[in-house]
Amino acid sequence: MQEDRFYHLMGRVLSGSASDPEAAELQQLIAEDERLRLLYWQMVPGTAEREEEEQSEALQAYATHFAKMQIAGLMDEAETPAPAPRRFRKALVMTVFLLALTCAGGWWYWSASSGQTRGAAAQEVKTPKGSQSYFTLADGTEVWLNSNSKITYGDDFNRSSRNVRLTGEAYFKVAKDEDMPFIIEAGGLKVKVLGTVFNIRSYPDEQNTETTLVSGSVAITLTDQPGNTIQLKPGEKLAVRNRISPVYQAQHNADSLEAQQVPILTLSKLRTDPLDGTLLDAGWKEGKLIFDGDNFGKVASKLEKWYNVTVVVENDALYNASFTGVFEKKSMTDVLNALQATGKITYSQDNDTVYVR
């Protein structure tokens, strides 16, 4: 479709990676289609003087197609969803305001509060708590970024290297380039790939940095053990204890008996939802909040990021209890009530703070 091609070309132009033929193709689309021309004027302020009626028409057209482009593949358009988490509610309302913030170096996000900024030496894509985002890097790599996560990369990305740094969680479909490997730094790991699909979870407040390989291959090196490389095969998951994370060390006694009993490295097989085959470690990309034998420390971390709340754990024994469940399009109250029904916790809520005991 012309609209899809228009958005692709605009992303290439705004990120500075468009070729001369692509720039010429964009100009031709703008010249032939009045609606696309209105969208172009809105995306690149100052390109033309517009009447108020034209501005309104452009905003409406952009909001419609923005929602279509970003939700595609993440939820069924034909399905009428249950009340969605707050990360979806403001998407259309804030669309044009978001674009004004991101057009200098940006891409499009289906999260209203997501943003991308461009600096002199690096670019940054980040999502706050309660939201998620999707974007494509200049090399064609697709990235889904989970809540409270950030990716940074240099302006030379895809020219002299393909290096990115991740804080939080992301799902990657890496474009293949045998001459230029894709390298991700996350927590205490460096992950090197060529063309691969995988998920990385690396939050500084959590115990482990986890890499789950769906297809392809990756070579993982620990920052403090550069001489040792771990090769993952499809269907494998590697969890590495966050020994060097200052945030995790500040919240946990690294010398405690509990910490000493946790292996530095744990290799396991990836797990899927028996009902629909969803990869549990990447279920968040499909709108699913998943606990897979998680202790309550990790459960609390996921709740905070998913619903943008603060969880206060008032019973340390919960850190030794495990929880399993899959929640799709459920409110936080529904999730907490289900956890409480296990008999392991009770909770109370005061505005955006949840107390668990």
TrEMBL record:
Protein name (Swiss-Prot/TrEMBL): FecR domain-containing protein
Signal peptide, first to last residue: none
Domain FecR protein: 124-218
Keyword entries, A-Z: Membrane, Transmembrane, Transmembrane helix
Chain ranges passing through the membrane: 91-110
InterPro entries, alphabetized: FecR, FecR_C, Ferrdict_sens_TM
Species, as recorded: Chitinophaga chungangae
PANTHER family: PERIPLASMIC SIGNAL SENSOR AND SIGMA FACTOR ACTIVATOR FECR-RELATED, PROTEIN FECR
Domain of life of the source: Bacteria
